[in-house]
Amino acid sequence: MAASALQPLEDLDQPDFDAFAVERAMRGNHPDPYPLLERLRRQGSIHKLELHGLFSDEPDVEMSPLSHYAVLGYDACNRVLMDGETFTNKEAFQHSLGKSFGRTVTVMDGAEHERFRKVLQKAFLPKVVARWGDSLVAPVVDRLMSKFIDRGEADLITEYTHHFPFQIIYSMLLLDPDQAERFHKLAVAQLLSSAGHPQGPEATRKLGTFFAALLAQRRANPGDDLVSHLATVEVDGQYLDDDVLIAFLRQLVNAGGDTTYRATSILLTCLLNEPDLYEIVRRDRTLLPRAIEEALRWDGPVTTTFRYCQKDTEIDGVLIPEGSIVDVCLGSANRDPTKFENPNKFDINRERTVRHLSFAGGPHICVGQHLARVEMTRAMEAILDNLNNLRLDPDMPPPQIIGYVLRSPEHLYVKFDKA
Amino acid sequence: MKQWMCMNCGYTYDPEAGDATQGIEPGTAWEDLPDDWICPHCAANKESFELEED
User: Fold this and answer.
1) Three-state SS across chain B?
2) What total of structural domains would you count in chain B?
3) Are B37 and B46 within 8 A, CB to CB?
4) Phi, psi (rounded to 5 degrees) for A96
5) Which CATH number does the domain housing residue B25 bear?
6) What is the CATH number of the domain that holds A105?
7) Which residue, A42, A57, A164, A290, could crosslink A348 as a Cys pair with Cβ 3.0–4.6 Å?
8) What SS3 class is residue A320?
């Protein structure tokens, strides 16, 4: 299928608008929310407060006016996530992700959610995404690395991790590689609606127009790509609703790339801050899955998700009233000492008897979790294989993981022996 | 080896491992799981699982 047959994605009316800078400002630069989360968790697993306000000066114009309860303990977080009847998604996300992406599964509940979720998840099951490691991930990471491997130094965030998961998704959808920069900008710009920026709805509208044409094209002349599959799959004898597919594609080009880039950046930061540990993992690749899971637990890219309380519910002696927004703090749950010994330590050898909640849990557990693991593994293997004697650049600022809801370092300056 | 995969999230029930979160002992066959057992990751019921054979 020739991507050139489509009209290109239309740029923002203000082409030089820096969506990335605005998005960074929205995320804030909080260096470490965990000490405060720990203090609060010691006082109780549930508090009547909005977490966003504790860590950011930038108000969330959609969410902040609502009544919030913050859930911090592991068991309490898991209970909320697993009970999809009492704690629902639609009302929690319709003003944020619902505005940005449209009728995505994130804003569905119950039977409607189950119907679409199973079809979408089927395209991202472990056996499916494992095949993409060679066909999609490897070419992208190799292409990005070729641009700096001869230089002996790089910023692994701005030159590598910030691009590879987005470009993998573009390959998955057979999008025009020459438009990668524009796709990335509009994918990020979609989320600016929550801060009241007009470029948010503009990006949502323009991506919607593009994806509608893409679906029509692939449905008329299907190939073996993901869009063709989604455009032609039938449930009960009918195609999936176009508005649901368009919303899914909007979400895929945003969240599917953003979370993996952040998680990989955090993992690299953890390992390069401990050179001996980096070397141990480099020599023994069986440890890489443990390092990935520990980085996700220790400082996952998404610290908090949200649910809406459908009926008065008591958890750990605290009544969460019907109609409350529940801030489910995944980052706090992952540092709960009743589940993880010495939880503030990055320890790839820790026992894994309790699963971390970085991909959330319950009916809305992350659809892309298996793809994220494949992408992180391949991106790390390319670094471990090809960047010899990799170390932090001593002449540049060390990496600092910042942000509250979404966390990552902005830069990771490294040196390595030239190829 | 027979394993069962949750079609809602991709979790695999491994009879050799059981499911400690719901008190299911290692070695418990799929057929012996109680009817009200749910996926420990996404809370889907047993009907959401499909047999996977390597």
Assistant:
1) CEEEEECCCCCEECCCCCEHHHCECCCCCHHHCCCCCECCCCCCEHHHEEEEEC
2) 1
3) yes
4) -115, -85
5) 2.20.28.10
6) 1.10.630.10
7) A290
8) strand
Which pLDDT belongs to residue A29? 84
pLDDT at A252: 92
pLDDT for B23-54, tens place per residue?
999 999 999 999 999 999 999 999 999 998 76
Within a 10 A sphere around the Cβ of A282, how many other Cβ atoms? 19
Residue in the structure block whose two tokens are 């066959």: B29
Strands (E), A23-73: 46-47, 68-71
Q: Do B10 and A370 touch (CB under 8 A)?
A: yes
Domain hosting B27: range is 2-53
pLDDT along chain A (419 residues), means of 10: 70 95 84 96 96 81 87 98 98 92 96 92 91 88 94 97 92 88 94 89 97 95 91 88 95 90 97 98 98 97 95 97 97 97 97 94 96 94 96 97 92 92
Count the domains in chain A: 1
One-letter amino acid of A171 = S
CB contact under 8 A, A121 and B43: no
Please give the residue range of the domain that contains residue A171: 3-415
pLDDT at B54: 64
Interchain contact, B42 vs A365, CB within 8 Å: yes
- Kindly provide the ipTM of the predicted complex, given to two decimals: 0.95
B8 to A82: CB separation less than 8 angstroms, yes or no? no
Q: Provide, as residue numbers in chain B, all residues whose Cβ is less than 8 Å from the Cβ of A361.
A: 41-43
Residue with structure tokens 């960047």? A387
* Whole-number pLDDT of residue B7: 94
Are A405 and A258 in contact by the 8 Å Cβ rule? The answer is no
Tokens of A414: 């490294």
Interface of A with B (CB under 8 A): 82-84, 114, 117-118, 121-122, 124-126, 353, 355, 361-363, 365, 369-370
